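[User]
If only I could read backbone structure tokens as easily as an amino acid sequence. I have put the entry right below:
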Amino acid sequence: MIKVTRRDGESGERLLKRFSGHVKSKKMMQKFRALRYFSQKDTQRKQRAAAISRETYRAAAKRRQFLG
């Protein structure tokens, strides 16, 4: 739970901005959006394929880092 109290002389707009910053820092919107729709867990085959593709992308990025 996020609780934001108004400081002395703080405008309502600034209070809302500070509250939004707290929400973003806790990544709450990402969690709520993920829960909004039902999604099945990836199969082991799909997880492994994704891991292999990540590995190739990382290797290519590492090569580019040293070449460029």
Q: What stands out?
A: Helices lie at 12-25, 28-36, 44-67. The chain has two domains: 1-37, 42-68. Residues 42-68 form one domain.
